[in-house]
């Protein structure tokens, strides 16, 4: 605020005028830059934020001073110049200064029709936007003639009891005052604050001499840019319209010309080759000197080129990457700046197929955007149907009330997943993101009618099994039919940008990957390793589920061991495949975590099948299933608790891991293996497990005659594990904070049940954010920080990480950097976002050590 | 250890000998006290712990020194003297010194048969306990004669290749060595450590001249005590047997006399009136000078009284209270000491009817002792059957796999509750304790067969509905039939002791009480108020459940309000009754907490009934029930989350509370009311609720024209609420830590699901204790301490408390005292225990301020 006192409220823009975007707004500052580059910008005066603020209060600037640079009888445009163009502002008002005399003069130079049209348009916009009269009374006539002009002037007089102002200074005063006041309107304020503007964001205005665009010789207005806004590729894009001025360039077709030479019709390049060449050189100048791709607004007045304005090219995420990389590769900006210029969140759009933004959307319902990307397919209601559909080669969308671990195969087979229940970290959402399958969850408006094989929408529409729908996991929409989509955009520039990012970031990024397919995705996205390999999915695949169930029904340890021995080679093969894909990196395997009842059927039919399969009486099966059911599975017999109660499972897993290590070692593949124990709440759990795992490792070493090392760590996901981290770190070489479960327990809030009220909670400001979406720094974060500090106290070189859904988020990465963590681990499709975010945070960190690279 | 060097290893016990229980053991020290009181104790030498320790290593004391005080040819007894008599020790060995010569001499004085019997018994005990020979080879003959004596001596020689030792010193050496070694045996060590003995607990021995108890004139041995061990009432209890020596006094009937004059037969009082009077005076002397009720072991030798030993009277819990109070009332001990002498846990026995300890127990199975007391009744398997049974006036035991809130009425109606699932803090256990209904949970051996209306035990026995069983909630046993029981013992001495305790304790004790009946129990046990009144039970009673369900099915806020208006007068009446019972104290009402699905039927039949009742189609009811079901109800839509989502419930409750306050105020009853918000995880929840409650309070004030105040507080039961306690205390006048839920969330462990593995976990030392039973100081405790500290930072005078199952436990009370909490709140039947525990902790606290009272 202080600095503003040194700026004049009115500044004639010249190359040396004292100006700043923070005082005069971005447009004014940009115009000064264009002038400095010797572009033919009409005379322009900038009003500072303070001047506009005063105008809103009725203290207008001195009109004589303001008008002096424009000469006698000027025609002026007034345009907004807010600090950030994204923050909006009132619409421009053109042709200020039109009056009866000017109209009469212009009929001589540009013709009656054009002059009358200009006057009519000015009266209209003045009446509506400045005098705030009823727009219905000021429609433009079909034929701009003397009658209609008289009629409109009379209407104005009737509505205001005053004649239409003829004095330029009077007009301009009112225009400035009305634009200044519009900025203070509630809607305008809310809109710009939603875009991040501060409460006291200021508005500047620029008053510019009109370049008419109508009249004798080649006159007109155009807009030109030099890259494709969708792809970022160099290309001339824009329009030029002869005998035209105004802001509806894109809507008007009469008089429109191509810019480049085009077989379909006349082009600016042909008609005015010199001016066109001039424009190209201006584009290049902007790019090099403004260090940005600009869209240039220009007029021709009797063939004379005028540059009215230049604004940053609006661009798709894909284009943003390409433009930033190209600018850096051309030496125009530094690589650091290219890395800073791309919004990390935008990257995730590029990783997935998208519904074409141009396409019509027939929205059935909206849910929570749980896994990005769009895919179409025919409705199926069961996992079995999804698999059958996949076998037939038909794309399908799996629609379920909610998914369970048994649905994994169906989710693999489906193009997209849609559920009625659950939130952003529900089973469907987590697995969907892991698999990269587009997913919308919590579409609670939909009702599945299994008997009728239908899905009913809230608007009464019914979609049958086999009907085509599209899941847009980026927006959360469910669409009828199959709108056109755009491909993922993992092109060279994308890779280049991320490799630059890797040069700057100072925290590791690993992926959560459970299957070889996940691991391959992680590798493709250059994850530095796997930070969380959940092994339970391995027990659902193929006929493993049957073996698993047999194990659950085994009476004694020895029987269980025998059954598990049959799973051993499969697990070993899983790990071996994973290790081979991740060769040269680190893989952190989390031991079996879920409660056993997840592997048992929930319905009568399933239990009957199981009874047949196991050759047991149905009541016995029913009873066992019941006995294993839990009130709060989240807080039940799972994780290390199972590891201690039924040690045979972890023994088998450990053996599979170690034997796989030996096997890849024999192929000369290097891999660092970490084993992570889930759901720890007491040090002794780790101590017991460590003894057991070491014993298995020794047995494998002895048998294979291959020596190997592994690192043992703990997934810190109960508040108690965080509190006791000092003890625990005594037995753990790394601590990986599982913020999903930690959030659930810290809040006492099940992520699967929170969906029903979370949005209302956030809306009422009870929670500032959904803590499953944005890490809760004040609560969960404190536990993580405290756990990290205590962990280090127990073992100074303990490795620290966050895994889980938060891992890839900006706030979590910032948190991890601040607390000196070693890496974050996130779903494979978040890896590029996390790499870029980590680089940006490092570059923004004033404390970062300077680099030589 | 250091001090032992100043004691001699062998000490002839005299009034002035330098002795200590920590060096010579309790028995030796007690014998010295008897000698100081001039009682006729035979010559006794004490061996110190060090001497015995040396003997075990083979370094025996000097026999000549040891034997010197006993004269020539002594007959000796050797008895153990551990520091605490509870720690056990080897059995006594009598008549050391018996040999052929002594046998021959004794035949002259006490007769052949008696002398031979003595010798045989000595050889037998020496052979078995000292020489460690096969007991089967050394049985006592029917007729103790010369042949049998010769045979036993030969057997001894055959087994050992040595003649039976004839030298007193040799015999005594071996006896000492064998007793010393027995103390080091594994079993003996484990047994005493289980009773709290330290690893290096020592054993002393006392060597005493035998007082024969056989021979001419009135000879015999007896034991006498002066209080009833079951009730603690003054009464002579014991036995005397003529011509007898040894330790099987209670088993032998031949020659047994009554002590007091008795119409059923001869008594010591009649035969030896002087000696009897002497014994009574010794009893009184012990009581006054040893400050304890003692059991005295004595012999008569030709009418001459000898006191062999005196030990603390074994006593029931009831007797312990009466004895301690009587000693204090007689001025023998201070009131503080009386308060310290009673084990608080023992009190809970007195609050409940018990199975007579003398009764035969036909144990069906064992489970977890969840709510103390014993009750018998006929088996019922449903709540409805329990209520029907109660209506017929027939006692019943409700047997369920597990109980749910719907079973409350059945639990009220039943004499006892037995479940197959759940742990010490399961629903059945918590409610059982609250109601004071004996309860055994987790009796997982039993199987309910609903079709056959039977319960099957693991041993194959089948108990049908209607069969009589007994639940012993004190031991956790389930018994067949109806064994005799003893009444609860809330007599005057019990009340006296607790009032003394109240004079000393420095922390408040409130009760968790949900109903007027609970409140009356709390009042009877002198709770200082209600620390936790759970209001949800109020919604299950009578036809309220139906109204509640209607509310759940209401579509809009207005409809819900209309339905809730029908509950309002009932809730108001509940609170009014509660306030009247608790007049003059404070009642803390916790607002509605459980998830709504607890009020809905779980089975098809229930849903059909509900559909009929609500006149809704069944599918709609089914769908709604399904929609409300939760994966993890513990972490779901309950507590303040419901309060925010469906504010009409809390509004109604608040109105009922405030109107009840106004109503009792109009009866001139004083009551302090606190309102507590459950399951808070963020400050804003409290802020929103406070605004809402204040609005209701204002409306009630305006309408009633009565002014009143209430205090608003928060139940801190999520880790996040503890972490954010500073913020939260800004809006809360008190913080009550709900350690049940806080434990569940800190460990990530559902109390209802933990039962399946908790005992194994504790057995393996994974958890030192069941954290639902004993508060986890290191984990949960840290959160509580941190919450308390931050709460005070946010509001220096914030009141702090613990409510929940831990509230009455010693460790929790100690914790609360250490952190300056205001009170603990526990189930009504724990209140006396908590009062006594708090007093003891205060008395033990070296920092407690001295008191004038």
Automatic annotation (TrEMBL), chains A, B:
Job description of the protein: Catalyzes the reversible phosphorylation of pyruvate and phosphate.
Organism of origin: Yoonia phaeophyticola
UniProt-listed InterPro entries: ATP_grasp_subdomain_1, PEP-util_enz_mobile_dom, PEP_util_C, PEP_util_CS, Phosphohistidine_dom_sf, Pyruvate_phosphate_dikinase, Pyrv/PenolPyrv_kinase-like_dom, Pyrv_kinase-like_dom_sf
Cofactor(s) required for function per UniProt: Mg(2+)
Alphabetized UniProt keyword annotations: Kinase, Magnesium, Metal-binding, Transferase
The PEP-utilising enzyme mobile domain, residue ranges: 394-476
Family affiliation: Belongs to the PEP-utilizing enzyme family.
Every PEP-utilising enzyme C-terminal domain range: 493-841
Protein name (database record): Pyruvate, phosphate dikinase
Pfam family, one: PEP-utilizers_C
